[in-house]
Amino acid sequence: MTIKISSADRIRQKKKLFLRREQKIIKAALDLLLATSIDGVTVSKIANGAGIGKGTVYKHFLTKNEILVRIILDYERNITSCLASGIKKAENGDAGAAAKSYFEARLARPDLDRLVQQLEDRLLEDASIADQINELHGIRRSNETSLSQMLTKQIGAGVLEDVPPHFHYLACWALAQGAVDLWYNKSWNYRHDTAGLMEFITNIGVTMGNMGQYRPAPDKKAKLKKNAL
Fold it and tell me: Is the distance from CB of 103 to CB of 206 less than 8 angstroms?
């Protein structure tokens, strides 16, 4: 008995195959980037790593930089997803959940985090991927808005120090950034307890900024409140 496949089913199957192949391209590019330099990665090498022809890669991405910016966007979307989950938990009473989710997302793979930063520095001025860069910035602005709303509520409830909300999330960014840099610091990367160190830094980040930790001079505190208005 011959089973007929509808045109809609064929389209869905082709789409699944297309997306699966696209993920293979991204993974091959990422593996190469982590193993070598950005300049050492070519579309030909990506195609070989994915087990497909170079021409097939161009059916998905017009340039190498389109592949690279996709890696950045995928990484940022993952952070956004983790943050959204943490913010939801924070709003349900787990005050440090958003910070914890952020640190875990970035410090789970310091090598990937550092690579994404290097890619972004390289690609920011490429006009051919301006739309993707604008999308990246849009994701970050949306995250800032969500974080500011959550932090404002926690400040009002007396959970966090009464400073501008962006002080809190930028302090988390600075600590995470320092942790990633520490991972690669030549003076310290000989140690074998780095995973434990990342966990320790995460735990610090979860409670950083809690009420009672900050003691600014009275005139500075008044100035902070004025600037926050």
Answer: yes
